[in-house]
Amino acid sequence: MTVSHGGQTGRCASTALSADVVRRLDVLKVQSSPVSAMANITKKVSWSGRGEEGTPLLNGSEEVKYTRQDAVRSKPKEIPHNEKLLSLKYESLDYDNIENHLFLEEERRMGHMSFRCLEISRWVICGLIGVLTGLIACFIDIVVEKLAGVKYVVVKKSIDKNTEIGGMCISLILWAALNSAFVMVGAIIVAFFEPIAAGSGIPQIKCYLNGVKVPRVVRLKTLMVKVCGVICSVAGGLAVGKEGPMIHSGAVVAAGVSQGRSTSLKKDFKIFEYFRRDTEKRDFVSAGAAAGVSAAFGAPVGGVLFSLEEGASFWNQLLTWRIFFASMISTFTLNFVLSIYHKKTGELSSPGLINFGSFDLKSVKYNIYEIPLFIVMGAIGGLLGALFNVLNYWLTIFRIRYVHRPCLQVMEAMLVAAVTATVSFAMIYFSNDCQPLETQKSSEDYSLQGFCADGEYSAMATAFFNTPERSVRSLFHSPAGTYKLETLGCFTLVYFFLACWTYGLTVSAGVFIPSLLIGAAWGRLFGIMLPYIALNPSVFTDPGKYALMGAAAQLGGIVRMTLSLTVILVEATGNVTYGLPIMLVLMTAKIVGDYFIEGLYDVHIKLQSVPFLHWDAPATSHSLTAREVMSSPVTCFNRVEKVGTIVDVLSNTSTNHNGFPVIIQTAASEEPGKLCGLILRSQLIVLLKHKVFVERARSRLRQRKLQLKDFRDAYPRFPPIQSIHVSQDERECMMDLTEFMNPTPYTVPQDTSLPRVFKLFRALGLRHLVVVDDDNRVIGLVTRKDLARYHLGKHGLEELHLAHT
């Protein structure tokens, strides 16, 4: 029995498309056909990029196929963008266990020893995640150092040669060409092979941990493109870092290892089969993200807090320990392998990809009267971070509208690489900040003499003609007098706009290191200026600590993380003395920045129209009830349903529901039936695939009893309904859902307030929440998109529109 419905998707299509939105989004043609919306949107409107050939969209509908000629005719030069929309293509993860008869039977068969073995397996998986993430970090670090080293040596020789004989433009062209070549390779593999690998990947992992199923985010192909892409981006001299993508890489490793198979390679190792469900997989992805942070910054505790702060819904002591274990193993692996590489086997002195260097006891001292100065720096970081985010927001909208074809994206990345090299060259060429070679802190730096006298080097080249990590270390630890005021001022201004332009390109790259570098530059500038305005100049003799506070302020002002970032920076500096100042700086930067705009990752999540659920419901939403929020009417099935009815409902491309309440219909009654369970689309597809019909069970064709293993084998890429053949005779058969449905789904009365519904949904990681009346009759269904629609705007509580974008 099917109740006539709009359901979630049907309801959304009618609710969302008000006249105003239709006028703005005439390209999408959503009103005429919900599915046809996808045909008019080019590949790079969203994270999901393109769909695989023959692979259905997540909601179960067929992906629209169109030829190259159709594409040429239909591709608009401009793609309209409306941030008041919420995309319907993102689905939720099933974090709640489906406690049906099969699940309960399996749990009863398992003894105490089986559960102990499962717990040991979880620890083994976390250890493997740590080892593999550490090895990937080593690979990225070593290859980037080699490639960047070769590039800088070649360019340095050219500059030194042409300084004497003239023809500096040859050196400029060489530098720009090498940068563009590296970046071209990185951009091509991302734009044409795996668009989801663009950027740092942190917004996508935040969404995954929040419970959103982002297409292709944890695929093996994504990992390979991510690693190669970040190597090319950093070696290409872009204003990017390799630390952010490590978090995404760790998450992909975790998702793959925990399943004991690779769906991309079609290889099943027949291990860890119990963990093939969203509940377990999401916990391991939390561990992978933490291991990535740990490998990047040498901050295992910071990694654990990152996973906690950025979205893991469920949290308990055992999970904390497992994640911490994965983080520690990741740091140890990186340390150990790098010690072998540097021919210092066993010397574990390289904690992470970014090493801030050790702050000696003299430089870490600070006085109580400096705390207000640190707070002022936090406010400056908040303002600059807000400006960065606003500029990047408008730039990203421009890219969504106009730079949506892969070839354009590659060209833009190459342009940015060439401009970065040109600007860097010009800054070094026109700078007259020459310093004695004795003041250079590290012999590893690629020092340039430029037009300086013999025995001197260009300080501007130390900042620009280097990997970003080395530049940060130089700003932290170089002695006073190493940089002139105008050098730091020009560098801050130029690098700020370069980093802002670079973030959002179709390359794999992070924003952590550029943010730290910008902050370290203006922080050191702040520290150098203090003696000029202070009554006692001798107090402010060390600009290095102000460089550290500026770096913290700038990074906090851009990404708005507080707890985890404090611990990451304390662990990376190797000294807890600065814990309090760093915390105050980050809190101030967040408070000031939040007044103007959200953090960079939240901005990009919103721009992609992802139904992201924050920790709490909007403050003014108590007046709304479940009845006003829910999707209704709802598609329901009887406990014993006709196969033809099930196939028709699943095949209906206009209403791609993923969850269906199962009801007991009272005889000769037109009222909604009473709820007795909930069944998922994926379960029904597996049942249809195995022909689990009542008639077959009764006849001699009786087959083996379906087990949970059959559902786990199909996870996570369940076949589309169109691939399952059901004959006309089979359509007349009946299907008993009793054994497979979840008999105890979460329900709420229709008068429950929105904050209460939100808290239940968010805390338990639900995908569907059934709304019932006093007689336990189904009257509606609450999904993630129903809750994410409401947010606090400038004019109070606002409702987002829903569309197939």
Could you please describe the fold and organization of this structure?
The protein is mainly α and 805 residues long. It has 3 domains: 11-90 and 622-803, CBS-domain; 129-341, Clc chloride channel, CATH 1.10.3080; 370-599, Orthogonal Bundle (Clc chloride channel). Helix content is 53%, strand content 8%. The chain has 30 helices and 18 strands. The strands form 8 sheets. Strands 8-10-11 form a 3-stranded mixed beta sheet. A 3-stranded mixed beta sheet has the order 13-14-15. Strands 1-18 form a two-stranded parallel ribbon. The longest helix is centred in the N-terminal third of the chain and has 54 residues, at 112-165. The protein starts with 6 loop residues before the first helix and ends with a strand.
Q: How would you describe this structure in keywords?
A:
805 residues; mainly alpha; CBS-domain; Clc chloride channel; 3 domains; three-stranded mixed beta sheet; 30 helices; elongated; disordered N terminus
How large a portion of the residues is in β-strands, by DSSP E?
A: 5-15%
Q: Radius of gyration in whole Å, from Cα?
A: 28 Å
Outline type: elongated
By secondary-structure content and strand pairing, the structural class works out as mainly alpha
Number of distinct beta strands:
18
CATH architecture call of the largest domain: Roll
Q: Compute the number of structural domains.
A: 3
- Strands in their spatial order, largest beta sheet: 8-10-11
CATH superfamily of the largest domain: CBS-domain
Regarding CATH, which class of the largest domain?
A: Alpha Beta
Count the DSSP helices.
30
Family: Belongs to the chloride channel (TC 2.A.49) family.
Domain CBS: 741-799
Keywords: CBS domain, Chloride, Ion transport, Membrane, Repeat, Transmembrane, Transmembrane helix, Transport
Subcellular location: Membrane
